[in-house]
Design brief:
Elements (H helix, E strand, L loop, with lengths): L47 H18 L8 H37 L4 H25 L10 E7 L4 H20 L3 E9 L5 E9 L10 H5 L4 E7 L10 E11 L7 H4 L8 E6 L15 E6 L4 E5 L5 H31 L12 E6 L4 E4 L5 E2 L2 H5 L4 H20 L1
Parallel strand pairs: 4-9
Antiparallel strand pairs: 1-3, 1-5, 2-3, 4-5, 6-7, 7-8, 9-10, 10-11
Helix pairs in contact: 1-2, 2-3
Amino acid sequence: MVGQVFRLTGPRRRSSRQSTGPGRTPWPTGTRTPVEPHTATASGEQSMDGLDALVAEHERLEREMADPDLHADAARARRVGRRYAELTPIVRLHHELAGAREDLATARELGADDPELAREADALAARCAEISGELEELLAPRDVDDARDVILEVKAGAGGEESALFAAELLRMYRHYATARGWAFEVLSSADSELGGLRDAAVSIRAKGSPAPADGVWAHLKYEGGVHRVQRVPVTESAGRIHTSAVGVLVMPEADEADEAEVLAEDMAPANLRIDVFRSSGPGGQSVNTTDSAVRITHLPTGMVVSCQNEKSQLQNKEQALRILRSRLLDARRAAQDAEAAAARRSQVRTVDRSERIRTYNFPENRIADHRTGFKASNLDQVLAGDLGPVIRSAQDADREAMLRAAGA
């Protein structure tokens, strides 16, 4: 359900993020945009009562985190830590705004006959407006999964070996981006092609600690799901002709085994799983290709199949496969819920299937274009080296605008 947004006094700060220009396609928020509880208010007017309630909740969570008994329940400790991290920047800005308003009132009172204090009052008024804008952005509707880690999969598609080579380049791009942000990047499974590309791969990307929602992995990488098209001369092309191929990317919030235990208990019941073991293929070290260490898990009710063979141990491969399957099932469950919600707001927000082509990488022109937001840039080499920030920010801006329109409808 979409709630209304806190309205604070003062003009809203104009975003410094790069604009994608007029005529931009509205962001498809039908994929997953539930609203956090703290975004709802009973009125569009300025409301400090709601902020005071968040401050009180933050203080209560701080006391809980100081209780040694909390850490006996790992799932509850994670939930408390996640919510505390989410509220901390809001509370900090709330206190900063209160202090700035007090200073402003004093400066105005004393500045009637003092030009210097009058100038200080003008500066304080501008600062109050700036803080109000920052708070309004933090309190805007947001995806409840933003603070989560992700499972990201790449799959070679149309284009054969050239598609597999580009799949490997995309995965390196995500690795560079994750490393630059200080995230952990773990390969869960992969299958190489003959020329060193990737037929498919699945990785886990995790933030350190309990990030605020805006800093979560899902908040940044959820926009990468879809078909990525590449235009270039393949290494296998002798006539120098430009070919077009495609790679599919799937991004899912990683299921927290403790948090999602109740939701997934039935789906992951042993009776619903068929587990097969077989010998690993491809390069291997001692024992990898000589024992039945590879694992294939089939989810019988849905037909989902996950295979893992990267680890030397059958048990490790099974654990990795279960992680991927758990996230796929959670993603499918939420996608079904989102489809119902999207039907109710279809008149307000354009929806799109995640398999739709989202981006084109044009190597001859060193150009990248995002077809959802209209973003274009001529620095493809830098983007593939991990400079994804401007591309992702354009998607975040479009997503935020669409959610604010839906909230105000």
